[in-house]
Write a structure and sequence with these properties.
By secondary structure, this protein is an alpha+beta fold. Helix content is 34%, strand content 25%.
Length: 450
Amino acid sequence: MIKKVLIANRGEIARRIIRTTDNLNIDTVAVYAEPDSNALFVREAGEAVSLGGRTPLESYLDIDKIIRAAKKTGCDAVHPGYGFLSENPLFVNRCQAESLTFIGPTAEAMCLMGDKAEARKVAKRLGLPTVPGSEIMATLAEAEVVCAGIGFPLLLKAAAGGGGIGMRLLSGPEELAAAFTETADRAGVAFGDKRVYAEKYLNQPHHIEIQVLRDHHGNLLTFFERECSVQRRYQKVIEESPSTAVDLELRRKLREAARKLAEGIGYLNAGTIEFVVDGSGNFYFLEANTRLQVEHPVTELITGIDFVEQQIQIVSGETLKSRDEDLVHSGWAIEARIYAEDPKRFFPSPGTIIEYMEPRGEGIRVDSGYEAGCVITPYYDPLLAKLIAHGETRSEAIKRLEQALKDFQITGLKTNIPFLLEAVASSLFIDGGYDTHFIEKMKPAATTGQ
């Protein structure tokens, strides 16, 4: 069993990892940039090492600094959380070269799935349905011919993209020239990779994902679906499990497809296979995230399984104790991501938190990285907390989430809590018939009083 883990991350996910490692009596080391020197996760870890710098490139993305910190403190493992280096195969290989256990999947799996265009090819080869789309388009002239063949509306996507970055919805061919250049340039800045491809935009799309776990003995678990269609700028804001758009047969097919992909690429540890489901119930492979997802708590609450603990047990060579048929679905869980941002324009709102008081109550869980006095800088993602509500029914989970949002007190900067309250109280959300157009549909309804 692992004895000491360096957490190569910050904020709520660092605290989340510490919670499990404490339960397992595993020592922890936090690393931190200058703005995080007095952060909760730094104080809660057994030890802390300064990386210096203020920006991600100077700190949490600096592989050499993180490896040195791990070796200096006698760690035998590294947990990357999500974001930063969590899907970087170079970091995985470096950890292995330094005899550090990387708590996550293999570098090979990351290489296969990290390139979205290549991941589509792998999925096709394994027999998974994929959204009609293109290969990499090298020039605008090529893109004009290819996109005309696919038909509009369509999505331009960065091959190395993720989190909605490098993605652009085009309604017609007149938008292609500017969008092709802009998407390629933005992808080059964000990922160092300007390659772009196109996918057909589907009618009434739902963003559905299946969590998987696979150990070194070939045992694989596929979990109940998560509905992730409430998004702004292609980034998830509210997630729930199960999905109102998925019946028993579709769930079986989605889990079967996720199993086929995970086994087909020899996947290890925790990961998520993402799909898009259209208005007719057809589903298509979207991408695979080779890490722990931000929204993993909703699955934890309906299954009682600790995914960080499972990750550690898998890399320690242990065998998964459950099979798919053993998983029990208990109630409904909904997660709302609370950001330091303008609730109408969704722009980041850095500043100092004056008051911070988390809600409490039956079925309520808060994963947070902040407290009163913390400064939210423009250098990092403005996620303040994840508020998760669990109930025996969806209606009960919604009521608990709504009350908890009202009870969550954060002052000193703007947050998206007003938007979240409006969203969960809307008829669109309560009826459960929403898709990825939720925000556009919700606002006109709110304006007209419908």
